[in-house]
Amino acid sequence: MKYIIMFSLSFLLFANKSKSQIKVGDKVPVFQLKDQDGATFDLATVLGKQPLVIYFYPKDETSVCTKEACSFRDSYEKFTKYGAKVIGISSDGVASHKKFATHHNLNFTLLSDSDGKARKLFGVPKTFVIPGRVTYVIDKNGVVVHEFNSLKDSDKHVTEALAALAKM
Known about the structure:
The protein is α+β, with helices and mostly antiparallel strands. Helices cover 36% and strands 22% of the residues.
């Protein structure tokens, strides 16, 4: 019983939902990051042009993250049907993203957030020391219309995002 209470308290301390996490109805924060080819991606250049699906994930080449990325890849035509741009963001570097994208034939943008600035802007929570897995669907006007947060249910990020786009 003592260990259960200690674990529960530890979980509450370290698995916090950020107070500053953006939510449905918020304007998406603008940022600039390097993509998998080393080019600077400026979110401001795509706002107002198309819906966006921005998903934060913990790490390249881990089993759940790979499954999630491949699920976005396999559903890419469905996203383009809605005119949406898919963007994956993690703290991995440009070289890691390039290798990951090539290895799995990823057909969307991966951005390197090595200093965690974008993750902080969005307020993406951590579970213990594991960076969160959160997907945001953003309308053409830069407003968050859907948010889905699940560290383990990687396939649902795609189905949730597609359902949100279908409602727009």
